[in-house]
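Just curious: can you write a single protein's sequence together with how it folds?
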Amino acid sequence: MVKAKILKKPKKSALKSLKGQETFARPELKDAKLVVETLLDCLRDGDVETFREVLTTHLMTTNKMKLSKKAGIGRRTIYDLMDPSRKFNPELSTLSAIIHALAA
């Protein structure tokens, strides 16, 4: 019987390295109304990069379990949106559910 190879060192999460940054302590990121206005402005301007940055940083400061229940989407979906190694191409229904949950 062949032995299964085991990963020697666990991979470091890219998200954990971002959490130590000073930008996550800013009070503006916790203001859901301001974040929603900024996200809608980014959509109007077609600025996808800024949209992703604002959404990701806000999601990192919020409780993902409460947001996923409020938005009616899976918690894994929220974590996938925050993953910097993934391509940012969410469905419109996902984005509208998140924005609607933030605005409520």
